[in-house]
Fold:
Amino acid sequence: MNRTVRWKGVQTLKLWGGRFKTSTDVLAEGFTSSISFDWRLYRQDIAGSIAHAKMLAKCGIITQEEGRQLVEGLKTIQKEIENGTFPFRQEYEDIHMNIEARLTELLGEVGGKLHTARSRNDQVALDMHLFMKEQVAEVRQLVLELMETLVSRAEEHLETIFPGYTHLQRAQPVLFSQYLMAYFFMFKRDYERFSDCQKRTDMMPLGAAALAGTPHPIDREYVAAQLGFGQLYENSMDAVSDRDFLLEFLAAASIMMMHLSRLAEELIIWSSQEFGLVEMDDSFSTGSSIMPQKKNPDVAELIRGKTGRVFGSLVGLLTVMKALPLAYHTDMQEDKERTFDAIDTLKNCLKVASGMLRSLRLQEDAIAASFKRDYSVATDVADYLVRKGRPFRRAHEVVGKLVLYCLEEGKGLEDLSLEEFQKIDSAIQEDIYQVITPEASVRARRSTGGTAPGSVRKQIELGKEFIGREKKSF
Structure:
């Protein structure tokens, strides 16, 4: 049935060896083996094999007794793996063949019946779908936890005024809660992308066999129901060659990491001595090996740095898939390491980002001082002049002249006398002083999505409603 070959005195059983005369070269065997990383799929492989064995027995392709033996043997193997006693062997190449070889050791020829009506091509596709269903669900939960942290901190700082920037230049006063909710809505889109990705992950490829389907009277719908899949692949060639669900995940993960990197970058900048607006907690910082005074934002920096790993996984898999004709090719073995690495990286970054935000402290004195002579209420003066009847373009020019005057005189807008204001535009009256404070600037921006407290409160309520709905779906 199987060809036994001897190589350097070691007896090696290849389950596909009947057609071969010589043993696999040692370098080639190590090169083609994937057991060093795809062992992670053992639970999925066993779950899929159990469902397949039950289906074979149900459809009369094997006997009920053979089906029972296969299921019991697979459960024994799972216990061995989880107890650390399973004899993983490189010569069996991957997790699928390692499990099948061990099953044959336990059951004899009955073990060889498990692979009836399937191929490693649809088997590995099944394992990855099962694995990704679990992982996408875990990632969604972690994103939701991060969003919950942002909402909580936004509520805590609902009316805390913070400098807003464009081009890294002081722009307008905003609420710190508005900043946090901006990231909330970024991560909400990420969450929705993962949710959408899960739809394509929830597809069952088993039954496609190598590429053309099988002549055996199988019941794919039964297997799908056993494994909790919502839909089947409708085309067997597509089923074994599709990796879109992994690419979708990696694309969503890359966008999510880009958002995390932007947040990390802002925290790094804000915590620098030059800005001094926030302080990272000691528990999410590290020191220098030579400079005793240093407190480095290494956690945020690593989030920023690890973004490149996830981007690389996406580009790498796109490059693997870009020129593959139908159907399966061993090139696709390259999907696993990069996907596993991206998942691990993303999950770790989400966990530490939540902790970092929960422990973040605002430097309130430095924040208050940052508004002195920063001219960030200049737009409020222009809007004030518009309300006095000036065209906005003329108002813009007037305020530009006011700022230039202040720069030359070493003053802030808040330092100008009414006489100085009126030298540049006579429309300015005593009520200008009610306009040119950070508090007034923030309160005035009541448009939907704006930074006024009432507007941000609505954003927070929307966030809490979304989180509440999604928590019920898990």
